[in-house]
């Protein structure tokens, strides 16, 4: 979630959907590591990474939310204050793609952004490496058409395993979060007291 502490801007991004490689994408981007072992996210987890834009240092805080239905009630605690929402689906599982609209609507309801029509989303079609691409059931054309119908959401096809487009996707996510974070009022989590040191602060991405 987005808050400011000292000279560091924390920009929150939330990843949604179930068993589509969200955690692996985060680990590939932040730690340059990949594991074939699947471990379900319980509730939510997050990683941070420092990124630099225009000679300013930012800390991107990436929240990995559980995709299982029984954890959806926890969403509001993690969605509020986010600067960008990342919708991830498995290119080899049609149901995960069909769920994108539900996850998008659920996020907007629970996050309650001040300008829902213009809140930044990014869509990632992950696991394009599986079986050399022969197992995929969601075409790039279909995915791009869906993104276009939702206001030209930026779209990337990724592989958390071999790193394809992971860096490029996160650069876009970070820039969308940065733009949103500068326009929105800063969100200060109740559990962190930074009052004494805090300060004011498409089709495709302009990356």
Structure description:
The chain is of the alpha/beta class and 207 residues long. The chain is built from six helices and seven strands; from the N terminus they run ββαββαβααβαβα. The chain has a single domain, classed as P-loop containing nucleotide triphosphate hydrolases (Rossmann fold). Strands 1, 2, 3, 4, 5, 6 and 7 form a seven-stranded mixed beta sheet that branches. β6, α5 and β7 form a beta-alpha-beta unit.
Q: Which terms would index this structure?
A:
207 residues; alpha/beta; Rossmann fold; 7-stranded mixed beta sheet; disordered N terminus
- Largest beta-sheet details: 7 strands, mixed
What's the overall average pLDDT, rounded?
Answer: 76
CATH class: Alpha Beta
Poorly predicted runs are 1-10, 184-203
The CATH topology assignment is Rossmann fold
What is the rounded distance between the termini? 22 Å
**CATH architecture group name:** 3-Layer(aba) Sandwich
SSE order:
EEHEEHEHHEHEH
Instruction: Look at the structure and name the CATH superfamily.
Output: P-loop containing nucleotide triphosphate hydrolases
Helix percent reads 25-40%
Instruction: Sum up the overall morphology in one term.
Output: globular
Number of strands: 7
Beta-strand content estimate: 15-25%
* Whole-number count of domains: 1
Helix/strand-derived class?
A: alpha/beta
Q: Tally the helices.
A: 6
């Amino acid at each position: 979630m987005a808050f400011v502490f000292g000279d560091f801007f924390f920009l929150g991004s939330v990843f949604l959907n179930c068993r589509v490689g969200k955690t692996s994408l985060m680990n590939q981007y932040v730690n340059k590591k990949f594991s074939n072992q699947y471990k379900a996210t319980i509730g939510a987890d997050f990683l941070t990474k420092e990124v630099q834009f225009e000679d300013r240092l930012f800390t991107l805080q990436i929240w990995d939310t559980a995709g299982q239905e029984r954890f959806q009630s926890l969403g509001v605690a993690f969605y509020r204050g986010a600067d960008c929402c990342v919708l991830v689906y498995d290119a080899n599982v049609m149901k995960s793609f069909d769920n994108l609209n539900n996850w998008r609507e659920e996020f907007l309801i629970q996050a309650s952004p001040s300008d829902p029509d213009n809140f930044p989303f990014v869509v990632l079609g992950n696991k394009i490496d599986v079986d050399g691409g022969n197992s995929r059931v969601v075409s790039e054309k279909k995915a791009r058409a869906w993104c276009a119908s939702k206001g030209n959401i930026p779209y990337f096809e990724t592989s958390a395993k071999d790193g394809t487009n992971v860096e490029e996707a996160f650069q876009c996510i970070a820039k969308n979060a940065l733009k949103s974070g500068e326009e929105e009022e800063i969100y200060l989590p109740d559990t962190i007291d930074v009052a004494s040191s805090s300060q004011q602060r498409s089709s495709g991405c302009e990356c």
